[in-house]
């Protein structure tokens, strides 16, 4: 944006929305609102209509969880992510684990074997060294577990009040095996959709500590590195079409993104969704839908129908996928849309959330 | 899962669908009063599976939807003040006032916080004695008692920097207003179970008798709703019109005496405007004179509010059960959850949002409607 005075007392001029490739949605908001970081439609629009046109190139436009790069005879995957979770420590993990697993998993979702990681710490003035050390140790331990090497890093400090203790950015590089071609646009009618285990666990774990909510039993985050699980899946079936880890925005957002990118319809079976009782109870209390709650150690796989049983068996043979199930399939009907059969026998559209899910009043 | 699974059992549901089908000999129109029931009906596809003769009409029972535009504009005005911490339940943040919402106020620097209980707001007031903490107290008889309790606590603890922006409404006067409308199509009511958990059922027999309309107190899980429908249809087919309690696991005839006593101490009944419907006599609560110091409208003297309601939005008719959401020309075109013209589209409990979110395949859609999915 130009650095000149603009309307509304802002020190910045209004962006020229009319020149954007698809200006309509972002006109709704002249400023960033929390929903732009919620992983739903607003987040997607920020990326697709603001960042991608500004940076534009074919690799970025694919909008996978990581970029697939050609490099002297082999293919590399490259991905970056930033972590601003609050609180820094929560049942089952910390921002350090998330910062490693998040980028490792984004690499794995293109079928890559994660290799190297960078680590950028943005620290807030006043945060205790002991806290930073604890985060760093968790980061190192998670990297070791994921089998990646932390090869470069950076540290910045911002004034008190300008951060939230610790922010972390990570970037990672992995190698994509020959014969593997996984990206969000490859789903085809007939593909079977698998998830590797229970959904909604991480989001409910974070909510329980962030908001001081007690659900009668402690719920631990499912944060975990998925590189090994993916390698095992690809060993059973190299022709996996799409992989995605359903983080912010939950499984509903992931399925909508894939349906949109591939132009297929997604048909879900509500009674097949692996929602643990603890998550279902917490969501019922808060008026949330588990399909929209964040996960950190789960993947969704779109696989050819004749390989579905082998893929399911491969996932179940790994400790991180032992509760894997088939939850639906791709159809030629309602392209770009996710439709679920309800437990009672009706149907409903499963939409992409706009921003963050908001608990109901009563 | 105990308490939830057993009330959505597909086998028992099928049995209830069969019983309702066997009972039904002619068309009937039933109104579910509560937005939570609407959400459940559409979310589980119950309306798709009922016999064609049973028409479900979605009632005004969404607290977000019926909060008047003027009150939301007052909330936006108060939340914009630098000395204020404005606390609200999450789903009020997206409700449009005249041109903006609380999310926008927050992005412009307003201290707007989502809380899960009004007592959280009181704690914020205790922790920030140099700030004015305001809680947005909206909703029906369900949310009013905890809000009353919070004001009671504030007074008892001498917390002077806390106040309540009150927009509480009462269900029975709304039922009366709907039945008095010359265009009314409602032949039976599924009363909101959680409202009756607080207030009991004493207000309903007179309404059922005067309007010759069955009222069945109904819960929120699929089997609760089907049982409510079954009992309402049974009464309609038999020409009866009494109050039945189909939610006995939560509702006692006398309600919750403690909650009612708290309401009686802190609030007094007042006339209240409902968004999209208009003024309904004696349909709301305001703080009683003893607690007037805790009234945010009084404390911040919010005046000169100039409201601008959409001219094409028909959410008032949706709230009164006069039209279905997709019968509004703006539905799915100018009006979507992304760009809601009325609160029935913005609130997750709103009938328009429920139709848009869950039922777009069955109602006429537009290019915009399908592209969002």
UniProtKB/TrEMBL annotation, chain B:
GO biological process: protein maturation
Gene3D superfamilies per UniProt: 6.10.20.100, HypD, alpha/beta domain 2 (3.40.50.11740)
Protein name (database record): Hydrogenase formation protein HypD
Superkingdom per UniProt: Bacteria
Presence of keyword ATP-binding: no
Entry GO MF terms: 4 iron, 4 sulfur cluster binding; carbon monoxide binding; iron ion binding
Gene name tied to this protein: hypD
Assigned keywords, A-Z: Iron, Metal-binding
Taxonomic classification: Bacteria, Bacillati, Actinomycetota, Actinomycetes, Kitasatosporales
Family per similarity comment: Belongs to the HypD family.
Any Pfam family: HypD
């Amino acid at each position: 944006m130009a650095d000149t005075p603009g309307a509304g007392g802002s020190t910045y001029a209004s962006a020229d929305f009319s020149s954007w490739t698809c200006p309509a949605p972002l006109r709704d908001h002249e400023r960033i609102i929390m929903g732009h970081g919620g992983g739903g439609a607003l987040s997607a629009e920020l990326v697709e209509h603001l960042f991608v046109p500004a940076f534009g190139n074919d690799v970025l436009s694919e909008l996978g969880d990581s970029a697939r790069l050609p490099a002297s005879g082999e293919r590399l995957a490259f991905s970056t992510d930033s972590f601003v979770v609050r609180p820094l420590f929560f049942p089952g993990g910390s921002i350090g684990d998330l910062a490693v697993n998040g980028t490792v998993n984004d690499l794995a979702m293109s079928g890559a074997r994660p290799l190297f990681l960078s680590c950028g710490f943005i620290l807030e003035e006043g945060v205790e060294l002991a806290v930073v050390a604890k985060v760093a140790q968790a980061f190192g331990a998670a990297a070791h577990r994921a089998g990646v090497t932390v090869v470069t890093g950076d540290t910045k400090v911002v004034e008190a009040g300008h951060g939230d203790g610790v922010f972390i950015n990570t970037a990672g590089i992995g190698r994509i095996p020959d014969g593997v071609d996984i990206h969000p646009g490859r789903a085809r009618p007939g593909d079977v959709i698998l998830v590797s285990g229970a959904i909604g666990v991480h989001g409910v774990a974070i909510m329980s500590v962030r908001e001081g909510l007690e659900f009668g039993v402690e719920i631990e985050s499912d944060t975990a590195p998925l590189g090994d699980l993916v390698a095992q899946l690809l060993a059973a079936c190299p022709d996996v079409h799409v992989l995605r880890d359903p983080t912010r925005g939950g499984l509903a957002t992931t399925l909508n993104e894939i349906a949109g990118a591939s132009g297929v319809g997604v048909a879900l079976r509500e009674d097949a969704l692996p929602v643990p009782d603890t998550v279902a109870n917490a969501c019922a209390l808060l008026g949330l839908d588990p399909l929209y709650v964040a996960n950190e150690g789960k993947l969704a796989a779109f696989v050819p129908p004749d390989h579905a049983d082998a893929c399911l068996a491969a996932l179940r043979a790994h400790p991180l996928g032992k509760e894997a199930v088939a939850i639906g399939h791709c159809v030629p009907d309602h392209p770009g849309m996710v439709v679920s059969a309800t437990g009672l026998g009706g149907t409903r559209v499963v939409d992409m959330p706009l921003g963050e899910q908001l608990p109901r009043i009563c | 899962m105990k308490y939830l699974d057993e009330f959505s059992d597909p086998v028992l549901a099928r049995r209830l669908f069969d019983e309702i089908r066997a009972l039904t000999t002619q068309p009937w129109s039933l109104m579910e009063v509560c937005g939570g029931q609407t959400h459940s009906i559409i979310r589980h596809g119950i309306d798709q599976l009922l016999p064609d003769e049973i028409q479900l009409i979605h009632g005004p029972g969404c607290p977000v939807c019926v909060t008047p535009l003027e009150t939301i504009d007052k909330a936006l005005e108060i939340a914009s003040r630098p000395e204020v911490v404005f606390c609200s339940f999450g789903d009020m943040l997206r409700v449009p006032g005249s041109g903006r919402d609380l999310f926008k106020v927050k992005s412009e620097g307003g201290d707007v916080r989502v809380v899960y209980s009004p007592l959280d707001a009181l704690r914020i007031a205790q922790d920030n004695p140099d700030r004015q903490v305001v809680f947005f107290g909206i909703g029906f008889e369900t949310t009013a008692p905890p809000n009353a309790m919070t004001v009671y606590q504030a007074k008892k603890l001498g917390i002077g920097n806390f106040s309540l922006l009150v927009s509480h409404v009462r269900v029975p006067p709304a039922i009366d207003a709907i039945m008095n409308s010359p265009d009314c199509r409602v032949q039976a009511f599924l009363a909101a179970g959680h409202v009756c958990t607080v207030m009991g059922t004493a207000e309903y027999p007179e309404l059922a008798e005067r309007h010759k309309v069955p009222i069945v107190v109904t819960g929120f899980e699929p089997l609760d709703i089907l049982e409510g429908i079954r009992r309402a249809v049974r009464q309609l087919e038999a020409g009866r019109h009494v109050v039945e309690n189909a939610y006995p696991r939560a509702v006692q005839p006398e309600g919750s005496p403690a909650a009612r006593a708290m309401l009686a101490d802190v609030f007094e009944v007042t006339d209240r405007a409902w968004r999209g419907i208009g003024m309904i006599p004696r349909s709301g609560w305001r703080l009683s004179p003893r607690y007037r110091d805790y009234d945010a409208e009084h404390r911040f003297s919010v005046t000169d509010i100039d409201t601008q309601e959409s001219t094409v939005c028909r959410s008032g008719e949706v709230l009164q059960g006069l039209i279905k959401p997709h019968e509004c020309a703006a539905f799915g075109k100018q009006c979507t959850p992304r760009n809601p013209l009325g609160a029935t589209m913005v609130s997750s409990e709103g009938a328009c949002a429920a139709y848009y979110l869950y039922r777009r395949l069955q109602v006429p859609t537009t290019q915009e409607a399908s592209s969002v999915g």
